[in-house]
Write a structure and sequence with these properties.
single chain, about 230 residues, mainly alpha
Length: about 230
């Protein structure tokens, strides 16, 4: 289903948009919406827990090409970005480096792009003191964006380039932020589209075939694109 069609359903009902996303999942897969919501709640909790545990941590990765980017950024006082952006960026790098060292991550939507959504989610949680239920609703909407891309295009970097991985993760993160602040799925659609446009054409060509360079730093850069869009 197109995202525009989900918006049309929302416009013709009095349901919250996150409920429509869950209902659509039930139609497509037959899964109980409450069970899907619980799964997403668990994933969000893992994101927040790992972001907290690994914030600014040093990692030993397989190649050694990454591992201290989050640590370095966490220990620098930001001069040209907000505290929100700074925290989101540190988390995005931390998740990417955790993935490269076999740590626990949520592939959102892929392992190579695992830092973008947790980056904005944790920044909302830590800086804005977000209510978990409100954050979960925004995360459900973000998952709906990822599902649309997965069904209508691809999430595979090998098939669609990094634009499919980081691009989709950024669209999801942008949608999450926009829904959290506005509860307006029309704005969410525009935000996700802007994020995808910003990263369109990004290729997948990791050094040595490892998900480290340029993957980790792309997570850090992409989280700022999500915030900007």
């Amino acid at each position: 289903m197109k995202f525009a069609e989900l918006i049309e359903i929302w416009q013709n009902t009095n349901l919250e948009f996150s409920e429509i996303i869950l209902a659509q999942e039930m139609i497509e897969t037959g899964r109980d919406p409450e069970k899907v919501k619980q799964v997403l709640s668990n994933l969000l909790r893992v994101m927040l827990e790992e972001a907290e545990k690994n914030f600014g941590k040093r990692f030993e990765t397989l190649t050694g090409l990454t591992g201290d980017n989050a640590y370095k950024l966490a220990n620098v006082k930001p001069r040209m970005m907000s505290n929100f952006n700074h925290i989101a960026m540190v988390v995005a790098l931390s998740m990417g480096e955790s993935n490269a060292s076999m740590g626990r991550i949520v592939a959102c939507p892929t392992a190579g792009s695992c830092g973008v959504v947790p980056g904005v989610a944790y920044a909302l949680w830590e800086v804005e003191k977000a209510n978990f239920d409100d954050l979960l609703k925004a995360f459900i909407v973000a998952s709906g964006i990822g599902n649309v891309v997965a069904k209508r295009a691809t999430l595979s970097g090998a098939a669609g380039g990094c634009q499919a991985e980081i691009g989709t993760a950024t669209a999801m993160a942008s949608g999450l932020l926009t829904y959290y602040y506005s509860k307006d799925p029309i704005r969410v659609g525009h935000a996700a589209a802007l994020a995808l446009k910003a990263l369109m054409g990004l290729v997948c060509d990791p050094v040595g075939g490892f998900v480290e360079v340029p993957c980790v730093k792309r997570n850090g850069n992409a989280v700022n694109v999500a915030i900007a869009t």
